[in-house]
Every structure is written in structure tokens, then in C-alpha cells.
Write a structure and sequence with these properties.
Strand content: 15-25%
Distance between the termini: 30 Å
Strand order of the largest sheet: 9-8-11-10-12-13-14
CATH superfamily of the largest domain: Succinyl-CoA synthetase domains
Radius of gyration: 25 Å
CATH architecture of the largest domain: 3-Layer(aba) Sandwich
CATH class of the largest domain: Alpha Beta
Helix content: 40-55%
Shape: elongated
CATH topology of the largest domain: Rossmann fold
Length: 458
């Protein structure tokens, strides 16, 4: 059965809906009321109405079968609700309730009971022990996070799925603050029914998604994950942050979502075979995903660096030398064009230092030449926005370069509020932006290595 009703339902019920601020059922209902255009059915025997919406004693009393039921009641009650949903043939359940396999033997019994209800039924479940779902395109927000505490991301091409609600929500919040567009977010918790592999398969066919970022503690079926992602990676990038790499970390994963995290060396080898791009740190998950989602295949591994701060050029060079990338050597033709088009900078070389008084127009002149250079495959633009000469027109200039060049372009800039504002503008213009050049270089290497893997299998 399709997972479509999770993301594009026409009607939703919230079991455990509440008038009490701070309750999970109150937060979920409020989020849906603010964003969802379909029918909403609060379910709680304590109330006749909530916020002007008729409140139902149980899902059995609703006049229609909802496309999705969000469950936010304690585990013992939740199991009875799931049984009712299965009998009603509710298409999808988002199970926020915790207290299952992740807490040990007592919870395992309850989870086995859930499995029994779902077995051979047409009802699909995400969870239990999950944070919920967010879809910027359909208006779904079943997360139990109040809107004033988490920034809503703009619509974009990255789908984020996370076994941990905490990690996922933090990454989602960071993406929103940096102007990184998100298509969908799913916290899938214990993955009793719907697995990370099924979600990735669904997202690969989603017209709004260009790359998937995954926080994973343990795959539900490692062999199936490997087989499916090997095929999916040929069409769409999959970036994974694997947790539970150590013995103690694996134990922590089991107590968190009931996952068997497994041998990390096995996972790492499987990722490499399947073309999965691995992130080592939290921040790399979105860094790599946005780079792979926004940029096309580079012609090779040669990078040109353009900066108005010489020190950043040196740091970039060190970073490039530590990777499989190379610092491009400007040809005699490129060097002559750069010398002709710009004021006297002395030695024209790569990295190209435009020095501290460079203007956005100086960047344009240099980038016009470099974007046409056959010996350059990728471009890293580093901008010190704090100088007097650098203004908002730099955003338009870099966007034009990116749109009119067949070379991948990334940017790096570091600073306070003014810098962060312009970094967000550039991100929204489709240019992957980074605070540090080292991060940009690592992301370009992932772009190159991913397409290198694809080429070997085409």
C-alpha cells in the first residue's frame, strides 16, 4: 500500500487531543489547525469540543474513516486505539506514543501486541515512539513541537527522515534558520511497521524531493536497505548519519528506539557499495544533502577558489590537499584574461585573492573568466562580508554566475548577523553556503565522489 496518506491526507484525527496547553495532543491539534486544509477530528472522551471543533469519544464515532490518525495517548490505551483503527481500515497511523520496545521487556510485550493488530491488515503505521511528520507542501504538521520554539523551514528539495525525534527536529530547525529548503520531515521512531527503506523508496518518487538525509541508529532490514538504496542512489542522493558506531553507542541506541545498531564496519562497507553518502557529524547531514540536491555533476575534481581574504584561501588549499580534489592550475589563457579583466592584483593564481577592498563587481569579473575556464570543474567562492565594499548586490552577482555556469558553485562566509543574513539569501538563491571553507571543500568532495560512483554503474 502507498504511503501517500501520511503526507497528503484529506482528513486527520488526533487521538488524545486536549485543551491543556503543554499536552502533546494540544500542540499537535494546534499545529494542524494552523497549517492543514483538510478535515480535523479531535478525539477525547473528556470534551464535546476543542477550539470550536467537535470532539469525538473515539475514532469509531467519527462519521468517516480518517486518512491518517495521530495517536498521542499512553501505550495501553494506544494499543486499543490501533485495534479500532485496523478494524475500521484506517489507511495510516502516526504513532507518537512511547513506552514500547525501547523500554525493555514490558514495552516489548506491548509492541508485539501492536504487531499482531497490524499483521495482515491494510493499515500502515509510522512509529511508535516518534515525533511526527511535517510536509511543507501539503501543510501536514503532526509534530508535538510548538511553533514558537521551532522555525518552520521553507519549501525545498531535501527530505529529512530521522529515527530520533530530537536529532531530527534540531537538524530541521537549523536548516530553517539557514534558509535550507525542506520537502518533508519524518520521525520514524521504532519503525515497527514502516521502515526507513520504505520511506526512502517513497521519497525517491516524490516530485518535490531531490535528496534524502537520514539519521539512522539501526536499519530494520540491513540487506533490504542495501539492495534498495543501491538502486535509489543511481537516481537520487541518499545521505546517512549513522549513530551507534561504538559498543556503548549501540547499547544506547537499543535503549532509545529499540534498534540493533549492528557492526559499524559492516554498515560503512554497505554504504560504500550502495552509493550512500555518509555524514560523520550532525552538521554534515544537511551540508552534504543540500550540496547534492542543488548541484549538478562536476566535470572533474579540479577546484578554483576565489576570495577577498587571503587567509581563507590558504585554509581552502590545505583542505583541498587533504581530499581527492585538486586545486586547479590556471591555464595561460585564463591567467591572461584575469589580468586583463581586473585591476592589478599582482600574481594571478589559484586560490585567487581579490584582496580586502574587492567589490562585488571585482568578484563578477573574476568569476566570469573562471566559470568559462576548461581547467576548472568546481568553484568555491569565499566572501568576507564585513568589508565596506561588500554589499547585497553580491547575492545577485553570485546567483547569476551559478545560473549561467555549468560548473558547481558553493560559497563560504563567516561572521555575525549581517553575514548570516546574506548567507541565508545566497542559500535561498540555490547556492550551498558554509561558514568555513573546510566544510565547503568536504561537501564538494562528496559531490564528486557520489557522481564518480554513479558513473561506474551507468
Amino acid at each position: 500500500m502507498s504511503l501517500e496518506e501520511f503526507f497528503e491526507p484529506e482528513s486527520m484525527a488526533v487521538v488524545g487531543a486536549s485543551k491543556t496547553v503543554g499536552k502533546v495532543g494540544n500542540t499537535v491539534l494546534k499545529n494542524l489547525e494552523e497549517k492543514f486544509n483538510g478535515k480535523i477530528y479531535p478525539v477525547n472522551p473528556k470534551y464535546d469540543e476543542i477550539n470550536g471543533l467537535e470532539c469525538y469519544e473515539s475514532v469509531e464515532n467519527i462519521e468517516e474513516v480518517p486518512d491518517n490518525v495521530v495517536i498521542a495517548v499512553p501505550a495501553k490505551i494506544a494499543n486499543k486505539v490501533v485495534k479500532q483503527c485496523v478494524e475500521l481500515e484506517v489507511p495510516t497511523i502516526t504513532m507518537l506514543t512511547s513506552g514500547y520496545e525501547e523500554i525493555g521487556e514490558r514495552g516489548e510485550e506491548l509492541q508485539e501486541e501492536l504487531e499482531g493488530y497490524l499483521e495482515d491488515s491494510s493499515t500502515r503505521m509510522i512509529g511508535p515512539n516518534c515525533l511526527g511528520i511535517w510536509d511543507g507542501h501539503s501543510g501536514i504538521d503532526s509534530m508535538f513541537l510548538p511553533g514558537y520554539k521551532i522555525e518552520e523551514p521553507s519549501k525545498g528539495g531535501i527530505a529529512l527522515i530521522s529515527q530520533s525525534g530530537a536529532v531530527g527536529s534540531a537538524v530541521l530547525d537549523r536548516a530553517a534558520s539557514e534558509g535550507v529548503g525542506i520537502s518533508k520531515f519524518v520521525s520514524y521512531g521504532n519503525q515497527l511497521d514502516v521502515s526507513e527503506t520504505e520511506l526512502i523508496e517513497y521519497l525517491e518518487k516524490d516530485e518535490n524531493t531531490d535528496a534524502v538525509a537520514v539519521y539512522m541508529e539501526g536499519a530494520k532490514d540491513g540487506r533490504n536497505f542495501l539492495e534498495k538504496t543501491r538502486e535509489i542512489s543511481k537516481e537520487m542522493p541518499v545521505v546517512v548519519l549513522k549513530a551507534g558506531k561504538t559498543e556503548k553507542g549501540s547499547e544506547a541506541a537499543e535503549s532509545h528506539t529499540g534498534s540493533l545498531a549492528g557492526n559499524y564496519r559492516v554498515y560503512r562497507g554497505a554504504f560504500s557499495q550502495a552509493g550512500v553518502v555518509e555524514a560523520e557529524k550532525n552538521e554534515e547531514l544537511i551540508d552534504y544533502a543540500k550540496t547534492l540536491a542543488k548541484l549538478e555533476k562536476p566535470g572533474g575534481n579540479r577546484v578554483a577558489v576565489v576570495t577577498n581574504g587571503g587567509g581563507f584561501g590558504v585554509l581552502s588549499t590545505d583542505s583541498i590537499e587533504k581530499t581527492s580534489l585538486e586545486l586547479a592550475e590556471f591555464s595561460e589563457e585564463t591567467t591572461e584574461k584575469l589580468e586583463e579583466s581586473m585591476k592589478d592584483y599582482g600574481n594571478v593564481s589559484n586560490p585567487l585573492d581579490l584582496i580586502g577592498d574587492a567589490t562585488p563587481e571585482d568578484y563578477k569579473k573574476a568569476l566570469d573568466v573562471i566559470s568559462e575556464a576548461e581547467e576548472v570543474d568546481m568553484i568555491l567562492v569565499i566572501s568576507l562580508m564585513q568589508t565596506e565594499q561588500m554589499g547585497s548586490e553580491f547575492v545577485d552577482i553570485l546567483e547569476d554566475i551559478k545560473n549561467n555556469s555549468d560548473k558547481p558553485v558553493v560559497g563560504s562566509t563567516l561572521g555575525g548577523d549581517y553575514t548570516e543574513l546574506h548567507k541565508t539569501y545566497l542559500e535561498e538563491a540555490g547556492i550551498p553556503m558554509f561558514s568555513y571553507p573546510e566544510e565547503a571543500v568536504k561537501s564538494l568532495e562528496k559531490l564528486f565522489r557520489y557522481h564518480e560512483w554513479k558513473d561506474k554503474r551507468s
